[in-house]
Amino acid sequence: MKKHTISKNILCSLIALIAIIALLAFLQTNKSEYSYQISILERAAIYAVVAVSMNLLTGFTGLFSLGQAGFMAIGAYTVAILTIPVENRASVYYVSGISPVIENLECPFWLALILAGLLAAAVAALIGIPVLRLKSDYLAIATLGFSEIIRAVIAAPQLDRITNGSYGLKNIPGFPNLYVAFGLCALCILLMVLLINSSYGRVFKALREDEIAAQAMGLNLFRYKELAFVASSFFTGIGGGLLAMFMRSIDSKTFQISLTYDILLIVVLGGIGSVTGSVVGSFLVTAGREWLRFFDEPLTVAGINIPLFRSGFRMVIFSILLMVVVLFYSRGIMGSNEFSWDGLGRLIRGIPAKLSGKGRKQKGGNP
Questions:
Q1: Residues 6+ apart with CB under 8 A from 121
Q2: Phi, psi of 294 (to 5 degrees)
Q3: What is the pLDDT averaged over residues 88-100?
Q4: What is the distance between the alpha carbons of residues 236 and 117, in angstroms, rounded to a whole number?
Q5: Number of Cβ within a 10 Å radius of residue 151
Q6: Who's near 259: CB < 8 A, 6+ residues apart?
Q7: pLDDT for 232-242, tens place per residue?
Q8: Is the per-residue pLDDT at 180 higher than 90?
Q9: What does pTM read for this prediction?
Q10: Are 273 and 60 in contact (CB under 8 A)?
Q11: Fewer CB within 10 Å: N-end or C-end of the chain?
Q12: Alpha helices in 210-312, H assignment, sequence order
């Protein structure tokens, strides 16, 4: 019975993978026609990487950090500086010029992404020494402050010849194709899942459940907190690099506090402690904001202008929908559970029973 269930799950996963590859092939073939839809999916996939990395820290280790935007900025600027073609740099650094250190420095995007993650991890290792001794809200405030410091340093005039200051960086090479974009995102999420399911992941969960008990077992709390913080920042830096490749043009304003709040929203909506919840939440939030754009357009019915339909009304509707979801799913869409084909099957099979039960209840309640 167990072997039959495993075989069925593998078969369903293969079918789903083939369907996703077929969808990517269709979109790649018709890239110009579906450019808007592709941009939504790419942004959602990148946000999913950052959301899972935040969940690795918050949901699986119990450390509440709000420094994601800062580490994304480090990764994004690293990738941009290392991948902008040398022949195009004069048109980018046209105000203060370019530093000789990076003037002829160029590398492939995959190497730039790795270096972006390593630099973000190195900064996290330094930041973690003082802040990881704090707990709860104090840790969140400290990491949020460091995030703003990183953004301010990037925009500082003293670094104009490296980061181009407030003018930002442009002409960043994009993804070669959709397979590379989604493949890199899937690889990052897979590596984080392997980390969560490893012996280190079990230690992270032990810290989340009871630090005192974990310390009594002989675990070095600071060491494993630092490890979780560095690992999360590594993938957040890669996520920032992917975002730079997606946007093709970045500046310090791209990585404001609101970006961290967007990632936190995805994590909470999907379910704290659920990897698949973060992925689902990322696509729902990103796509939902775009699909509701028609609420920002003026609406006239029978010659009467509807005053509610104007710029900004889309976010009102979006917020109301989020409140409704949170009311019905107080722990997020997935809670702390992960997606499974058996669970999906039980959900689908249970819908007719619920509907018929509701019908019988209503029928029996009538006199």
A1: 230, 231, 233, 234, 237
A2: -65, -20
A3: 86
A4: 7
A5: 21
A6: 68, 69, 72
A7: 999 999 999 99
A8: yes
A9: 0.88
A10: yes
A11: C
A12: 211-216, 221-247, 257-270, 275-291
